[in-house]
Specification:
Elements lengths: L1 H16 L1 H30 L10 E8 L2 E3 L4 H8 L4 E8 L3 E4 L8 E7 L3 H5 L5 E2 L15 E3 L1 H8 L9 E4 L2 E8 L13 E4 L13 E7 L5 H18 L9 E6 H6 L2 H33 L1 H9 L4 H37 L22 H27 L3 H6 L6 H40 L9 E6 L9 H16 L4 E7 L8 E7 L11 E8 L3 H5 L3 E4 L13 E5 H7 L9 E4 L12 E7 L14 E5 L5 H10 L2 E7 L7 H11 L5 E6 H8 L1 H35 L1 H9 L4 H30 L15 H26 L4 H5 L3
């Protein structure tokens, strides 16, 4: 310990004497460590932290497994079939998302979020109420008694933490619900953002084959995921035999850990960003190692003297490593502070659909804190960094030739030349790693640009959107929904500045409901249906609002009421797919037949064909869509959609859309003063949200690539400046013997060209191999796009040569007489 303390004091003294060197090294390390800390904080919160439930590793999410992935929507009959499995202690059925509802009778409405869950939900997720209870089996039966379990936050904010709330009746969308329990603090409901849970009341004898609910189960102690998967697979095959029409031929059952299911497709992007920021740290380490090698060259006489008076090689290595670890510790401290700031900035950029950081409404559900795990990570990275950039320079510096160094001055020795070769290798590595990041960033930039220019099929500019919940008894029938929508649209369209208004089950680009259909007179190749495409219920002016072109036939009108003939409009993609050489208009299709009574719909005649909209997002391929008039929606679908989805509204305005927000809300409340209104956004924001993850990935990788480019340029500049200093006497002699300035410039630049060519060549090879990892994040560009590779290589080479030119230009100004006397 006394020796270590002495080494530390000496290291601090030496670093303090070289303040400029210390500042540059600590700044480079802080930048790399801080970026890693910020990214790790997000990765830790999303991927690593356990779910906030008791024994979270036992919670599994059940889904439908297909060849192209897993879908986590399930039907009620499948839930009851899976529930009989012996691998699970409990299994719960719950809504995919929460639904806005009014609490009480205040005006404007006091809105909260509600979700339906089955009785075993509390056993699966371990949400034992702090007061009261969960739902009983009786309350979970169809037409069972009403009940409500509220979250701890709602209990505190709306009821003041009063334990007398148990048994009190609250009004939700005008219907009374007795409060039977309060969830514990810190419990995050599934689905997230729910303020109140209501009984699911699913029918065990249901024949409803709609897949719109989530299923989660808690494994019995000692039962593994593999065992549960095997048992559920067997249950799935039995279900297929019992109900051959209710399970697709290529469909299986998936048992997935809850955390993995929640993270979904975010994991690859976060891991790629983690790898990118690790490359930035490697470049920073290479820069600091290069600085240490240069410093070691200057200190050769000092180290030689220490060896001459008895210091062993190991003692010298330990002293040099101590200095490196002090630098790393300082970099870690400043890096942690930089990471703390970076996390706040990062959260401001986080897209609204990033799981475990944002809820279903896009709000930050849980903000990651710089906890002990992050602190330990930062400390570990700092120590590893110190060893990484300090070991090699320390070993190099300890190989001192005592006689030669004691005889020479200023360190221009063979060791210094060897250090220059090593530093050249480090700089080449920096350039190569920077090129990898730049290529990745360029590919993501081209992806984002491609998405921005992708034809969505709609005109989003000038459109205001919002949502209203119709849950409850006030809008239990299609006639009530249509009457309300018609009155509201008429009032909204009468507003100055409004061109058209419409309501729909979901907005374009956001995905939606898939339903199978059969074509009259056209027997399907297999099964009972000719296909399965997206389904939309829309009010008459829907196509005008979004400017979806009518290609053939007619659009919907106010005469397409519930008493009129059933009609349907399809998009061009569906027309080409199922009527390749025929005219679809006049054909008859039957939608949803056999899925259950909720979906029973009479045959419909195709009356129009409209342009194709990328309903599943800009990255997804075109899908067929069936549009039906809102006034002709089957009663079962109306009741079902009202219980799980808000009604979406779109208003095309001649002015700024958000300026019409308040007038539109007033007109809606004029029709129904208790209507819950939420998620007021422009349609441009809706479209932007669909590419927010791509924007997030592009921005972060571009920042990392920019930092890497700057560090690489600094590395080249530093090496070239040091090389010029080392060759001052040689260059002076050359100029004294008649060499002109252009010759000296070419001589010095040749070294910079070698560094740039070597780094770019190595970087191209690395990028060619590593960019395959981001293929799943790309759109409209290949991972091996030659244009991107060539452009990035040219830019990086130009920056590298510019960094080398400054020292080379300075070398041409050397005075030969001064250079000959240079020490």
């Amino acid at each position: 310990m006394p020796t270590l303390w002495a080494d530390l004091r000496y290291a601090v003294r030496m670093l303090r004497k070289s303040a400029a060197f210390t500042a540059v090294a600590v700044a480079a390390l802080a930048l790399g460590i801080g970026a890693n800390t910020a990214i790790f904080t997000v990765v830790n919160a999303v991927l690593l932290n356990p779910l906030p439930y008791p024994q979270p590793d036992l919670i599994m999410k059940l889904g439908r497994k297909f060849t192209n992935g897993v879908g986590y929507s399930n039907s009620i009959p499948k839930y009851f079939a899976w529930r009989r499995n012996q691998a699970f202690d409990a299994m719960a059925l719950y809504d995919f998302g929460s639904l806005g509802m009014n609490l009480g009778t205040s005006s404007p409405p006091d809105q909260i979020k509600a979700a339906h869950v089955s009785a075993e939900y509390f056993k699966v997720f371990g949400g034992s109420p702090v007061t009261g209870r969960g739902f009983t089996d009786t309350e979970d039966l169809p037409k069972g008694p009403q009940a409500a379990v509220i979250t701890y936050g709602l209990w505190q904010s709306r009821f003041g933490g009063d334990r007398g709330v148990i048994g009190r009746t609250v009004l939700l969308n005008g219907s009374p619900f007795p409060v039977v329990g309060v969830l514990p603090p810190g419990f995050i409901p599934q689905p997230e953002a729910a303020d109140v849970l209501l009984p699911m009341q699913a029918d065990p004898d249901s024949t409803n084959q709609g897949h719109y609910l989530s299923v989660a189960g808690r494994l019995k102690p000692g039962v593994t995921q593999a065992v549960a998967q095997a048992q559920l697979t067997a249950s799935g095959e039995q279900f297929r035999r019992d109900y051959p029409k209710w399970m697709d031929a290529n469909e299986g059952v998936a048992v997935v850990p809850m955390r993995e299911a929640m993270v979904g497709d975010v994991r690859p992007a976060l891991l790629i960003l983690s790898g990118a920021v690790a490359l930035v740290l490697l470049i920073a380490c290479a820069n600091v190692a290069s600085l240490l090698l240069a410093r070691a060259s200057v200190r050769q006489r000092e180290l030689a003297i220490r060896g001459a008076v008895g210091a062993t090689r190991m003692r010298v290595v330990r002293q040099m490593l101590t200095e490196s670890m002090v630098l790393a510790a300082l970099g870690g401290v400043f890096g942690f502070a930089l990471g703390a700031w970076g996390v706040r900035e990062l959260l401001a950029l986080v897209p609204g659909n990033l799981p475990r950081l944002t809820d279903a409404a896009g709000n930050h559900a849980s903000v990651p804190l710089l906890d002990w795990q992050v602190a330990a990570f930062t400390m570990g990275v700092a120590l590893l960094t110190g060893l990484l950039f300090g070991t090699f320079p320390a070993l190099q510096a300890s190989r001192a030739d005592l006689s030669s160094h004691l005889k020479e001055s200023s360190g221009r020795s063979g060791t210094a030349l060897r250090h220059n070769r090593v530093r050249s290798m480090l700089v080449v590595s920096e350039v190569a790693l920077a090129l990898v990041l730049l290529v990745g960033a360029a590919l993501l930039i081209r992806t984002f640009a491609g998405l921005q220019n992708a034809k969505s099929g709609i005109e989003p500019r000038g459109v205001l959107t919002l949502q209203t919940s119709l849950a409850g008894s006030n809008y239990a029938t299609t006639v009530k929904v249509d009457t309300f929508s018609t009155q509201a649209v008429q009032r909204i369209e009468a507003l100055p500045g409004v061109e058209a208004a419409a309501s729909a089950i979901v907005l374009p680009i956001q995905g939606g409901v898939d339903l199978p259909f059969a074509i009259a007179g056209k027997p399907p190749a297999k099964g009972d249906y000719n296909g399965d495409e997206q389904w939309r219920s829309v009010s008459p002016h829907y196509f005008q609002v979004f400017r979806i072109p009518l290609l053939r036939g007619r659009s919907f009108s106010e005469t397409d009421t519930g008493n009129a003939s059933r009609v349907v409009i399809i998009n061009e993609a569906m027309a080409k797919r199922y009527w390749k050489s025929e005219e679809p208009i006049g054909q008859v299709i039957t939608i949803g037949h056999g899925l259950g009574p909720q979906f029973e719909d009479p045959p419909r005649q195709i009356v129009g064909i409209v342009g194709t909209v990328r309903e599943n997002g800009l990255k997804k391929a075109d899908q067929g869509v069936m549009y039906i008039p809102q006034s002709q929606v089957p009663e079962g679908i109306t009741a079902l959609s009202n219980s799980i989805l808000p009604l979406s509204w779109a208003v095309r305005t001649a002015t700024g859309p958000m300026t019409m927000r308040a007038p539109v809300e007033r007109e809606l409340w004029a029709v129904d003063g208790q209507l819950p209104i939420s998620r007021e956004r422009t349609m441009e924001q809706v479209v932007a949200d669909t590419v927010s993850r791509q924007s997030f990935n592009m921005l972060l990788l571009s920042i990392f690539a920019g930092v890497a480019l700057v560090l690489a340029a600094i590395g080249i500049y530093g090496l070239m400046s040091y090389a010029v200093e080392q060759r001052t006497q040689e260059l002076g002699i050359r100029m004294a013997l008649g060499a002109d300035r252009s010759h000296v410039l070419r001589l010095v630049m040749a070294q910079g060209v070698k560094l740039a060519v070597g780094g770019v060549s190595l970087g191209l090879a690395l990028a060619w191999a590593l960019t395959r990892l981001i293929s799943s994040l790309l759109f409209g560009v290949k991972a091996s796009d030659p244009t991107t590779f060539g452009l990035v290589a040219a830019i990086l080479a130009a920056v590298a040569l510019a960094a080398a030119y400054v020292p080379a230009r300075r070398a041409t100004t050397i005075d030969p007489m001064i250079a000959l006397r240079y020490e």
